[in-house]
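Treating backbone geometry as a discrete language has practical consequences that deserve illustration. Part of our work consisted of pairing the sequence of a single chain with a tokenised description of its backbone. We regard such an encoding as a compact summary of how the chain folds. The amino acid sequence and the backbone structure tokens for this protein are reproduced below.
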Amino acid sequence: MNMKLTVVLPAYNEGDNVEELTTRLVSVLKKQKIKYDILYILQGNDGALERLRRMKKKIPQIRMKHYPEPLGVGPAFRIGFDNIAKDSTHVLTLDADLNHQPEEIPRFIRSMEKNKVDLVIGSRKVKGGKMIDMPVWKKWISSGTNMIFREFFNLGAKDLTSGYRLFKREVIDNVKNRLISRNFEFYPEVILRASRLGFSISEVPITFKFRVHGKSKLGVISSGIGYAKLLCLLLISKEK
């Protein structure tokens, strides 16, 4: 596949993870002979900015935008989507906390080529997908959210809350200005918007490993409210 990839990575207080994640990403992309840039939307002041500045001296493809205070998942991704490299043909998103394994990227590319789709989701819910050390309450939130959104919107994708995704550039260009979510409801919203616009979607199994360093930002109450608001809005809205 002739590809130039922008990796969009919102990161809030992930200073203990960004060096390992970047090193592994670069290793995989070099082996795949993919042109790339890595765009971090950094939030907080835990040393991640300084670490990445040091790495940038050897890896010029690293780019950073820094905000002292948390923006929220949705606003951070929208900033990233607005700053995709002009010559990029594809966009990759994944978590900055090492939940997602960069070594699985070739699986996404193969699926996109084989199935001729516009968007590939890294799924914990399809055959071969795994969740390692994930707290039970997070599994409940993920499973419940996926079930509700699939039922209401008749979507074939099983893992709407996964943030590990490979997009063709035109998907991002068409959905980014329609996105309204602030928190973790952002993830199913992207899939819903893309589906309504007619973009094709496939899923590949991934191994999700719960974070070792840092603290999860997923709040039960705030996430529940956000999912409910998004569900109501999309049910009454005729907008794609």
